[in-house]
């Protein structure tokens, strides 16, 4: 019913930048929140940033001032601009859309994830 697809991951040197994109498609009536989580090897998954359809944003303390989340509501797309990347930012980044309202009900959806590796 709903498909979440991320893109934009890759290998970058410390101090570099990457931009992640996430598109939600399908029988979507409304998506209030879209966000990004990440999980590094051996660590718990953590919220990186999320944004509501009204533009309210929250960031993890570890990325404040370096990452910027934005959204195009008309395209059901969310972006994560990552700058001043550090090796500790290395993780699989997954797009998350909770409580998506479709013609068939309300559910949470996750993307498959995209690898971000920060290394020299």
Topology:
Blueprint lengths: L1 E6 L2 E3 L5 E9 L1 E3 L2 E7 L6 E7 L4 E3 L7 E6 L4 E6 L8 E12 L2 E6 L3 E5 L2
Task: Explain this structure.
The chain has about 120 residues and is mainly beta. It is built from no helices and twelve strands. Strands 2, 4, 5, 6, 7, 10, 11 and 12 form an eight-stranded mixed beta sheet that branches. A hairpin with a 2-residue loop joins strand 10 and strand 11 (about 105-110). The model has no long low-confidence stretch (mean pLDDT about 95).
Brief digest:
With 120 residues, the chain is mainly β. 0% of the residues lie in helices and 61% in strands.
Tell me how many strands there are.
12
Q: How would you state the average pLDDT, rounded?
A: 97
Topology pattern, helix = H, strand = E? EEEEEEEEEEEE
The secondary-structure class comes to mainly beta
> Globular, elongated, flat, extended or rod-shaped: what is the shape?
elongated
Residue runs with pLDDT of under 50 for 5 or more positions: none
Which percent range fits the helix content?
under 10%
Distance between the termini: 41 Å
Radius of gyration: 14 Å
Largest sheet: 8 strands, mixed
Count of DSSP H/I helices: 0
Strand fraction band? Answer: over 45%
Features:
120 residues; eight-stranded mixed β-sheet; four-stranded antiparallel β-sheet; 61% strand
């Amino acid at each position: 019913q709903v498909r979440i697809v991320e893109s934009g991951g890759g290998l970058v040197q410390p101090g570099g930048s990457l931009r992640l994109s996430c598109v939600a498609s399908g029988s979507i009536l409304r998506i209030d929140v879209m966000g990004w989580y990440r999980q590094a090897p051996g660590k718990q998954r953590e919220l990186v940033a999320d944004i509501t359809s009204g533009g309210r944003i929250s960031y993890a303390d570890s990325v404040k001032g370096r990452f910027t989340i934005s959204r195009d509501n008309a395209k059901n797309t969310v972006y994560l601009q990552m700058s001043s990347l550090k090796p500790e930012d290395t993780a699989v980044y997954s797009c998350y859309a909770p409580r998506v309202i479709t013609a068939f009900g309300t559910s949470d959806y996750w993307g498959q994830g995209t690898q971000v590796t920060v290394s020299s």
